[in-house]
Task: structure prediction
Amino acid sequence: MTELIIPSKDGQSFTAYVAMPTKLPAPTVIVIQEIFGVNAELRQKCDDLAAQGFIAVAPDLFWRMEPNVQLTDQSEAEWAKAFDLYNRFDIDLGVEDLRATHHVFRGHAHSTGVVGCVGYCLGGKLAYLMAARSRVDAAVAYYGVGIEAMLDEAATIKKPLLMHIAEGDQFVPAEAQAKIKEGLKNKAAVTLYSYPGCDHAFARGHGQHYDPAAAKIANERTLEFLTRTLNLVKAA
Result:
């Protein structure tokens, strides 16, 4: 586990947490943060992916406002700060920083050059946009917010996209979910799973709405999807 400096499109740079697997070279998964930054939960997700054979990298997407944000969902003060950062966050610049990360790992010495991404909440929206706006080889979106307003971008999605939707999501109401499902139903590249009785962030370990059973199913689907689409060769 280490930290890497990623050059940005505008000539600056930002940091990314990187977890390396035992067997190299390996495909890369960009792990895209929630509104809480690259915190312990997100770093653990990177470590878990590395244990499964992937290079896992989590870029600090809030660096333009405040580097190294690490919040939880356990206090009102942290929620207030997280929402303030979210409301000031430039989505388009975030996608550009993810594209910069993608570029680095397509040519990284330890990477096979195959790069996917997985994102949560804000990161789910960004994973959807990476599928639409970048050459990423595969993308996974967990309970992405605001996607119903970006369905016109689906026209450019050609590579596999897996989406997990929480049916009881307080930030993505039923009407928005229906729009997403209707807007993507004819997209051959998109696979969508819906989770009854689950609220937003059901896969956030130790979070307020963590649902271990649903998280296990979603994470197993994600692992199978990434292993297949990113051509991970398991050690004998």
About this structure: The longest strand covers residues 111-120.
